[in-house]
Amino acid sequence: MYVPLHNPKIIANFARKSVRMEITMEILWLVLAWLCIVIGVIGCVVPGLPGVPVAYVGLWLAQLSERVQFSWVTLTIFGILTAGAVVLDYIVPALGTKNFGGTKYGAWGGTVGLVVGLFFGAAGIIIGPFVGAVLFELIAGKKTKEALKAGWGTFMGLLAGTLIKLMCCGWMAITLLYGMIN
Question: Which of 9, 69, 88, 142 has a CA 20 to 30 Å removed from the CA of 33?
Answer without folding.
Answer: 88
